[in-house]
Amino acid sequence: MKTHTMQAAFARRRSVSAALIVALTPMLLATPAFAQSDEASTKAARARFQEGVEFYDKKQYENARAAFLQAYALRKHPAVLLNLAQSCLRSGHPMESVKYFQQFMRESTSITPAQRSDAEKGLAEARTKLGRLEISAPTGAEISVDGNVIGTAPLSEAIDVEPATHMIRAKLSDGTTDTKSVTPGPGDKLKILFAPPAEQPAAAPVPAPVPTTPPPSQPPPAAATPPQLDAPPDSGAPGAQITEEPKRDTTTGRMSLVPAYVGFGVGAAGLATAVAFYFFKKSAQDAADEAAADITKNGGTRGTCVSTDPTVIARFGATCNSLRDNNDKVDTNATVGNIALGVGIAGAVFGGVWFFVAKKKNASAEKAPTTGFIRPVPMVFSDTKGFGLEGAF
Asked: Where is the composition biased (Pro residues) (predicted)?
């Protein structure tokens, strides 16, 4: 009778926001699991459970989480897990909520379709705040995440992790390890692949030893004699050994003069263009001056060419057009000539600087000392014969 009264009281306290959580209260309170336990622990568990419901109704989710954790510690009944998972999710503990949602669906034997649906929705919502890792590794490889072993390959499902950098390690069957670092974001699902251990190549056959001494019946090979210089026919002196003079590298450190010649060419072309447009400008200026003088000579003024009087236009129109055209040519030719002059000067300066630097460096390279050598040479004089030394330093 007392149990029914408490159930009715819990039902009256139920709110719309906590309908899912409070709906499990009768199942928790009426279960024989509590009746078979210590009366004090059962009473304390019921009190903590009721506190959790009240905190959840007030949207004090962290307090609700703590109360449901205490209730579950006193009486490990699956009915508490769904309440605990929802409180963890609402209080910002998505990893804990995933754990309790999965435990609820795994351990509850009398779960209803509505409760399973709510648990699956809560689990999906929690995973939007986490990262998931799909780890693929050779069968039997030991997989650990941040130093914690989570199982051996193949893993049955992806691993939920906080959005942060994690170290994934696979210990392969041959004893070798492979480590990868990943940083999933909220809602990310990353695939991590560990390759199987490389096969060891077969050992190459060892060839039979080859004897290094000649057979006793054969005489040992004669020692190689160095090249000899023939002495003079009647000197009777032995030949002298040839020492080859080292070849000198005459290209080391040299600079090409081609860029200098290109610069000179650009400079010459620019200067020639500038001179040509100077004459074009002068010719246009002369024609403009001549047109202006003709207008003045025939009674025109500076404003004649901007007049709108039909009589003035009929009289001076052609001359004014010529004046305007030639003035435009003066401006255009001056602009092109100045640009060409700038390019020519730049090209000439570049070519000159390159030529000076290259000549100086090439001259230094040509004066670089060569490797010294010394060698004997046969010598014949009028009254004596013999050998002398020849060398370079």
From this structure: 204-224
- Looking at the predicted structure, is the pLDDT value of residue 389 above 60? no
Q: What is the pLDDT of residues 22-49, one digit of tens each?
A: 444 444 444 444 445 578 888 899 999 9
CA distance 101 to 123: 6
Q: Do 240 and 229 meet the contact criterion of CB atoms below 8 Å apart?
A: yes
Exposure string (b/e) for 72-111, b if CB count within 10 Å is 16 or more?
Answer: bebbebbbbbbbbbbbbbbbebbebbbbbbbbbbeebeeb
Nearest to 193 by CA among 155, 237, 149: 155
Pair 143, 118: CB distance under 8 Å: no
Cα separation, 269 vs 250, in Å, equals: 34
Strand arrangement of the beta sheet that strand 177-182 belongs to:
148-152, 142-145, 166-171, 177-182
| Token pair belonging to 62 | 């962290």
Which stretches does DSSP call E strand in the chain? 131-136, 142-145, 148-152, 159-161, 166-171, 177-182, 189-193, 228-229, 240-241, 373-380, 385-392
Structure tokens at 211: 């004897």
pLDDT tens by residue, 39-90: 888 889 999 999 999 999 999 999 999 999 999 999 888 889 999 999 999 9
β 240-241/228-229 pair status: antiparallel
Q: Is the pLDDT of residue 362 over 90?
A: no
Place of tokens 């730049």: 346
Which residue is listed with tokens 């705040």?
Answer: 129
